[in-house]
Recover the amino acids of this structure.
């Protein structure tokens, strides 16, 4: 076999090209809608239609014994940097497509012995749903105005993030997450880069949450409101800029321990060691350092008497001591405890 006569460095270059070449994103929603499924009925995957990623390493492993061994060793040392393309399909959910990816960190005999992921580069693209989209996809992210409930749009984006922490890139971890609120997810990531691209279609994108076919100002249909999402239909602003503003304002709410989001906020501080970096068409728009947010949070949460009650304050102190120690271990790549001392900060 001539391939085996090539220098090892060239063979490694070929392995890298085969395994780490990014998957070409779908050109339209209609192109791969028949390959989209909900991973399961779990709450955190509602409205997220994934496409099972291919693993190009598998074909190499079947070549022969020597190539199999070389590929196994190669997989141990490639950086754990991942790419995902996410189609934001108005009224029909989030449709992620993961590139490659190689085997998950810490999963199976072919993977690197770590739960740590260096970075995730996510491109976001806005689409109107096709006219013929099945009812299966319709209204999976319902924009409902119901007092006391978590914001539905935030719920969709947060669900994607939560699923990543539990299941890793591509939802490839088949085990269901623990029901115990005190058990932390497995996967830890340093940086998440979110690049929001300009739509390529000819639509005016009068709204970033309602498809143009059904758009009307202050639309009210079957109890769903869009008017509460400020700026979603401001056509003086490019749609990609509207989505960036929307996502960053929601992230600010999450990281500032907004009362209804306390327990969700904990997860981000526990599983991320670096930054969110938001970009618009490749140019940096906003950077959010998780550590800095955590330190500011302590000043607010432990502020003047009467802001949180004493029980909440004591729970926060216990959780903060634990998460500081955990984050120190994260930065050194050490094993992490799986149980948090405080299951919830409210409730």
């Amino acid at each position: 076999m001539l391939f085996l006569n090539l220098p090892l460095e060239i063979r490694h270059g070929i392995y890298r090209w085969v395994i780490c070449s990014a998957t070409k994103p779908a050109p339209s929603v209609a192109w791969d809608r028949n390959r989209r499924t909900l991973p399961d009925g779990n709450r955190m995957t509602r409205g997220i239609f994934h496409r099972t990623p291919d693993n190009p390493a598998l074909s190499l492993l079947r070549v022969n014994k020597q190539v199999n061994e070389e590929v196994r060793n190669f997989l141990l040392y490639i950086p754990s940097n991942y790419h995902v393309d996410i189609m934001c399909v108005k009224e029909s959910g989030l449709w992620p497509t993961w590139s490659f990816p190689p085997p998950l960190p810490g999963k199976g005999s072919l993977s690197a012995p770590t739960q740590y992921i260096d970075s995730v580069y996510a491109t976001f693209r806005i689409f109107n749903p096709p006219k013929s989209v099945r009812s299966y996809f319709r209204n999976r992210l319902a924009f409902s105005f119901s007092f006391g409930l978590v914001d539905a749009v935030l719920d969709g984006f947060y669900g994607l993030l939560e699923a990543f922490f539990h299941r890793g890139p591509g939802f490839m971890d088949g085990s269901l997450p623990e029901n115990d609120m005190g058990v932390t997810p497995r996967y830890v990531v340093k940086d998440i880069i979110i690049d929001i691209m300009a739509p390529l279609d000819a639509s005016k994108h009068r709204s970033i949450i309602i498809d143009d076919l059904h758009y009307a100002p202050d639309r009210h249909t079957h109890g769903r409101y869009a008017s509460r999402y400020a700026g979603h239909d401001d056509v003086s602003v490019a749609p990609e800029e509207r989505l960036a503003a929307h996502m960053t304002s929601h992230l600010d709410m999450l990281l500032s321990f907004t009362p209804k989001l306390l327990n969700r906020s904990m997860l981000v501080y526990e599983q991320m060691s670096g930054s969110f970096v938001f970009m618009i068409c490749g140019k940096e728009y906003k950077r959010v350092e998780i550590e800095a947010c955590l330190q500011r949070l302590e000043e607010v949460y432990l502020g003047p008497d009467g802001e949180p009650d004493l029980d909440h304050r004591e729970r926060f102190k216990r959780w903060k001591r634990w998460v500081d120690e955990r984050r120190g271990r994260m930065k050194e790549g050490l094993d992490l405890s799986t149980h948090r001392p405080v299951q919830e900060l409210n409730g």
User: Anything to note?
Assistant: The longest strand covers residues 116-127.
